[in-house]
């Protein structure tokens, strides 16, 4: 949906870049918000206002469609069946999300070999690092302590969101594997950084 604003109208929203994390397979093309937040950390807001979908070549994919199972800004996009093309999505986010330059340092408070999981939960980090993290983050990013992006590890995450933080539980891994050791950082509203 195109939106037109009069000249001088203050913009209250912004768009993300085009995002494509999945290729169509025999079962479909999945550009779900939960997986895009992991694949493109700090580039997608957790509560988008709108979603746009096109094929990779730029042809709009407009709802409703009999093969579009999900087409929703809070869930993302799903096309199911063997006839799906390769789709990309972009989201409209509140302007406060796109304009933020307020990002915390990296935090690593847990080790997966000591207690069966690597938990970098926001509630624990707020207690351990008072004043270093905002209580209402607008983005989260997780990497291994060696710097590998979380989505590339193959680990299954129990939690990965701005409300709770991050957790990877060893018992939840396929084949009985052990989670990598992770670190996290958050993006915060600009008011958090400007008040320091």
UniProtKB/TrEMBL annotation:
Compartments where found: Secreted
Positions of transmembrane segments: none
Pfam families linked to this entry: Mucin2_WxxW
PANTHER family: CARTILAGE INTERMEDIATE LAYER PROTEIN 1, CARTILAGE INTERMEDIATE LAYER PROTEIN CLIP
Main localisation: secreted
Record's keyword annotation contains NADP: no
Protein's UniProt keywords contain Secreted: yes
Domain WxxW: 16-93, 104-188
This protein's UniProt keywords: Glycoprotein, Secreted, Signal
Organism in which the protein naturally occurs: Cyprinus carpio carpio
Protein name in the entry: Si:dkey-205h13.2
GO cellular component, one term: extracellular region
């Amino acid at each position: 949906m195109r939106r037109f604003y009069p000249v001088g109208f203050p913009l209250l929203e912004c768009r993300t870049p085009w995002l494509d994390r999945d290729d169509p397979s025999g079962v479909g093309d999945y550009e779900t918000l939960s997986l895009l937040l992991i694949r493109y950390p700090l580039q997608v807001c957790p509560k988008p206002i709108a979603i746009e979908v096109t094929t990779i070549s730029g042809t709009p994919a407009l709802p409703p469609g009999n093969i579009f199972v999900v087409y929703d800004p809070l869930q993302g996009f799903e096309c199911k069946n063997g006839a799906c093309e390769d789709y990309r999505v972009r989201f409209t986010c509140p302007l406060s999300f796109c304009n933020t330059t307020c990002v915390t340092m990296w935090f690593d408070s847990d080790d997966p070999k000591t207690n069966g999981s690597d938990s970098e939960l926001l509630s624990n980090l707020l207690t351990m690092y008072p004043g270093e993290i905002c209580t209402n983050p607008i983005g989260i990013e997780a990497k291994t302590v060696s710097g590998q992006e979380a989505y590339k590890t193959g680990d299954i995450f129990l939690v990965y969101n701005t409300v709770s933080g991050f957790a990877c539980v060893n018992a939840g891994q396929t084949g009985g594997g052990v989670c990598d050791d992770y670190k996290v950082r958050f993006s915060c509203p600009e008011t958090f950084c400007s008040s320091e």
